[in-house]
Write a structure and sequence with these properties.
alpha+beta; Phosphatase 2c, domain 1; 2 domains; seven-stranded mixed β-sheet; about 35% helix
Length: about 375
């Protein structure tokens, strides 16, 4: 499965406290949307305009409006903004399917670039009118290792009036990337180099809000978490077979879950840590799983510390290790068994604040989505 990693470098114009450019991304299982908006002017008004415009595009699309129709509606509203007091922003609106196919609609924005095999090229665009405004469209496909580059006009107009009659331009940017792409392909370093270069062209200052946004196609890092036995013992074999077919890393959260998979696959479970303290649940070992531990208790503790930086973890307890695995993964699948655990309704469970397995997994899934992960919950009933 492909994963589209975003690298964004941004700097504000002059001494303004906020940037007039704004980036928004929304990953779903079917597609990834990325939007770069450039609010008119600079400072707070431009920032508000950029944020409003990006979110309106995203909401239109996720609400069922096609990508093209959303772009047309946004462009038409920008025409009204030329004469009325309403937010105005240029935009680049990208939709990427999981196979790498992409469509980009741009309005008053520099054309996108494609970086492939160490070279950069400006993507050809087709133009059409929407009301009184002109919108650009381009399509293509990202292969593994390819990168889409979007930027605000703070990049392409760098040097304007300072030796470059029309500024750097998109072709000038492509030429610069071809000469300066790091040998190790470090895109974070390239983005910062481009940002620095724009200031150098403009006499050592940032003459406009400046944003470089890259979307890099690579293999997804996948993690599958099995928790809870199936509702019927007749499903145990299929449940275990799902475990043996996992792509990427697998974690088992639940002693009964581990027993079922071990029994059905003929694999041995070994004790790693027999600690039964609340802060350090027990851990086991089984071939095919990077970690085997307790269920609801570990999942609850994982949610409690999911926002912590793993660099600060010292004890390496199962919840800490699970957080590290989740934060490192791009795609996370929870395989949730449908059997109900009567213990989850006990007063003691409620007394210590432990949520039932289904509830805690849904909360974890939502939090991980907020962190930019692709998450699915597959119920095994």
């Amino acid at each position: 499965m492909n994963f589209f990693e975003e690298i964004v470098a941004q700097v504000n114009k002059g001494r303004h406290p906020v940037c007039g450019d704004y980036c928004l991304s929304d990953r779903r299982l079917d597609d990834t949307v990325f939007i770069l908006t450039d609010g008119i002017g600079s400072g707070i008004y431009a920032n508000v305009s950029a944020i409003f415009s990006a979110n309106r595009l995203a909401e239109l699309y996720r609400g069922g409006v096609s990508q093209r129709e959303a772009a047309e509606m946004a462009a038409e509203s920008m025409h009204r903004a030329r004469e009325e007091d309403m937010p105005f922003a240029a935009f680049s609106f990208v939709k990427l399917l999981n196979d790498g196919q992409f469509t980009i609609y741009s309005y008053e924005a520099p054309p996108p670039l494609l970086i492939s095999d160490g070279q950069a090229a400006v993507l050809p665009q087709r133009f059409f009118t929407s009301g009184y405004e002109t919108v650009a469209e381009c399509t293509g496909s990202l292969q593994l290792g390819d990168t889409l580059l979007l930027c605000s006009d703070g990049v392409t107009q760098a040097g304007l009036g300072n030796g470059l009659n029309f500024g750097l331009g998109a072709e000038g940017l492509a030429s610069y990337i071809g000469r300066h792409l790091p040998a190790d392909g470090n895109l974070n370093r390239l983005a910062q180099q481009i940002i620095t270069m724009t200031a150098n062209l403009s006499g050592g200052v940032y003459a406009d809000d400046t944003t470089v946004a890259m979307i890099h196609c690579r293999r997804a890092k996948r993690l599958t978490v099995f928790s809870g036995p199936p509702a019927s013992r007749g499903l145990d074999a299929a449940y275990a077979r799902r475990f043996t077919q996992v792509e990427g890393q697998a974690v088992i959260c639940g002693s009964t879950t581990a027993d079922i998979i071990a029994r059905e696959t003929g694999r041995e479970i070994k004790m790693v840590s027999d600690s039964f303290s609340f802060g350090s649940p027990p851990e086991y070992r089984m071939n095919g799983a990077v970690m085997v531990t307790e269920g609801a208790m570990v999942l609850n503790q994982t949610l409690n510390i999911i926002d912590e930086n793993p660099a600060g973890f010292r004890e390496k307890t199962p919840p800490e290790r699970l957080v590290t695995l989740m934060r490192d993964a791009d795609v996370i699948t929870f395989v949730l068994g449908g059997a109900l655990n009567d213990a989850h309704g006990d007063l003691v469970f409620k007394q210590v604040g432990l949520r039932p397995r289904r509830q805690i997994i849904n909360l974890l899934a939502n939090r991980l989505r907020d962190m930019g992960k692709l998450v699915s919950v597959d119920e095994f009933n």
